[in-house]
From TrEMBL:
Keyword terms, alphabetized: FAD, Flavoprotein, Oxidoreductase
Pfam families xrefs: FAD-oxidase_C, FAD_binding_4
Organism: Nocardioides imazamoxiresistens
Entry protein name: FAD-linked oxidase C-terminal domain-containing protein
PANTHER family the record matches: GLYCOLATE OXIDASE SUBUNIT GLCD
């Protein structure tokens, strides 16, 4: 029972929950601790009244009905791999864990899959591949992040340059609204222009409008071949020059950038022995992949690449891309990280890279930058030692300077990780008062009592 509950309302809610979702309500702090935060370790997290581990849609309906009646905040939780604190618990609220809703079926004829929100991204892709299909959105966390979380954050990944983000693959959603009403949005048709596109509105809404309990997503035929190139450059600006040139001759399925600091961290962790200089990893897929990657390599050479290595062996390609996949983990081994997620028009990347360097120097911190270069989406990662006096403040000041630089370059404060807690202070600066007020009116139409992830997002 709650320690402080002067009017007994928390006790009433817990009793009602225990009756509605018997056996799936955790209140013991030792059990709820694991549900308090996501992977953004620098964002505030509250202490929940309870965690409900939903086993089905009825549980979600019961939680949203009771929470709405009692005006108690609800934070929906998928795999908790978010990087903006969006799934962090709110004090005295409920955490609704939907990872147990993990039904999965593939319709190979329609080229769709219908999944519960708890299905892990990679499991969906693996199931689709058994039918010669694949699920394109591939966040770096795909081995553990959930489709519900991917939808709620409109997750990106490496393949966005060619295949788009999660929203481009979401066809229809079943959503439980605050109060417990169940609505279905979208169609599984290729086209649909009836009314407002509520599916698109829900994707990326970070658990502020309702809880996704089922999604139908688009699958694509597995490309015939994949080919990969590793290109190194004397500086990051030269690498971006090559990115712009590559975009004029082909659309690679991935164009990933790692700066020298990131490559050094990857070498320290993996002993891969990569040249410690700005590096591009480029992947092309389709029947002409080998020819396309050869064209990319030739172009990179003309744009001053120092080293050019390319291969159309799939296994070798996977091994080469591994360096980028472990970039964040490698930087985390160097200290506490404050990870950013800014995105600018691609042609402005050189200016952003310059601003990141300036900010790092001005604040005396180490920044490793990697990211999805073809999308203009970078993850400058500030590495600091929290035990060192003033280091946390310097890291935060550097983070602010990078966000300011992205906005000044017509960019966005978040390309794919979302607003959550971490980026909430910057929303008004990006969208302005009128647009933010409109967003809030839309939010209130879904959630009149403001129980869904309050204080997060917009
Ligand atoms: C190593 C690493 C690499 C990463 N790489 C990428 C990347 O390449 N691209 C990228 O975009 N992100 C990346 N991420 C961030 C993170 O994995 C994504 O944001 C992911 O989509 C979160 O999914 P999740 O299931 O963990 O969601 P959670 O963290 O549990 O929740 C995220 C948000 O979604 C909401 N939510 C969850 N489920 C539902 C639901 N069913 N209905 C409504 N709202 C819901 C939560 O309330 C919260 O607001 C990475 C994270 C890590 C740790």
């Amino acid at each position: 029972m709650p320690t402080s509950d002067p009017d007994g309302s928390a006790t009433d809610l817990l009793e009602a929950l225990a009756a509605a979702v018997a056996g799936r309500v955790l209140t013991d702090p030792a059990s709820t601790e694991a549900y308090r935060r996501d992977q953004c370790l620098v964002a505030d997290a509250g202490r929940p009244l309870a965690v409900v581990r939903a086993a089905g849609v009825d549980d979600v309906v019961a939680v949203l009905r009771l929470a709405d009646e009692h005006r108690v905040p609800v934070v929906t939780r998928g795999a908790g791999s978010g990087l903006a604190g969006a799934a962090n618990a709110v004090d005295d609220g409920l955490v609704l864990d939907v990872s147990g809703l993990d039904a999965l079926s593939v319709d190979p004829v329609a080229r769709t899959a219908t999944v519960g929100p708890g299905v892990v991204n990679l499991d969906l892709d693996t199931a689709a591949r058994a039918h010669g299909l694949f699920y394109a959105p591939d966040p770096g966390s795909r081995a553990y992040s959930s489709i519900g979380g991917n939808l709620a954050t409109n997750a990106g990944g490496m393949c966005c340059a060619k295949y788009g983000v999660t929203a481009d693959h979401a066809l229809a959603l079943t959503v439980v609204l605050p109060g417990g009403e169940v609505v279905r949005t979208g169609r599984t048709t290729r086209k649909d222009v009836v009314g407002l596109d509520l599916t698109r509105l829900l994707v990326g809404s970070e658990g502020t409008l309702g809880v996704v309990v089922e999604a139908t997503v688009r699958l694509l035929p597995v490309p015939a071949r994949t080919a990969t190139a590793v290109l190194t450059f004397r500086d990051a600006a030269a690498a971006v020059d090559a990115v712009l040139a590559i975009g004029t001759v082909t659309t690679p399925s991935a164009v990933e950038l790692m700066d020298a600091t990131t490559v050094r961290a990857v070498n320290a962790m993996t002993r891969m022995g990569l040249d410690e200089t700005p590096t591009l990893l480029v992947q092309c897929d389709g029947s002409d992949a080998a020819a396309e990657i050869a064209a990319v390599a030739a172009l990179a050479q003309r744009h001053g690449a120092l080293e050019v290595l390319h291969s159309d062996d799939e296994e070798e390609g996977r091994a080469l891309m591994e360096a980028r996949r472990v970039a964040l983990t490698a930087l985390e081994r160097q200290g506490t990280v404050l990870l950013d997620d800014v995105c600018v028009p691609v042609h402005r990347l050189p200016e952003l890279l310059g601003a990141i360097e300036t900010a790092a120097r001005a604040h005396g911190v180490l920044v490793g930058t990697f990211g999805h270069a073809a999308d203009g989406n970078l993850h400058p990662t500030i590495v600091f030692d929290p035990a060192s006096p003033g280091a946390a403040e310097a890291a935060r000041a550097c983070f602010d300077a990078i966000v300011d630089a992205a906005l000044a370059l017509d960019g966005t404060v978040s390309g794919e990780h979302g607003v959550g807690v971490l980026k909430a202070p910057y929303v008004a600066r990006q969208v302005g008062a009128a647009e933010q007020a409109l967003m809030r009116r839309v939010r209130a139409a879904f959630d009149p009592h403001g129980i869904m992830n309050p204080g997060r997002g917009y």
